[in-house]
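Bit of a strange request maybe. I'm writing a small parser for structure token strings and I need a real example to test against, not something I typed by hand. Could someone generate the tokens for this chain?
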Amino acid sequence: MPYVNIKVTDEGVTRDQKSQLIKGVTELLRDVLGKDPATTFVVIDEVALTDWGIGGMNVEDWRKQS
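Reply from user aminoacidic:
Good idea to test on real output. This should exercise your parser:
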């Protein structure tokens, strides 16, 4: 029973894109590991830019310095 958790920043990921991710990951686990899609769980979490850190600062601030 695979469980996959995908975390992305909350920057307008569409419902269709999420569906594609869920389908693609499920198919990948089926094809590579032989896992049953009926028992494969995929969860997508959207994280605010200020709640995701890189290089010691949140992504929003990190991007401003680039």
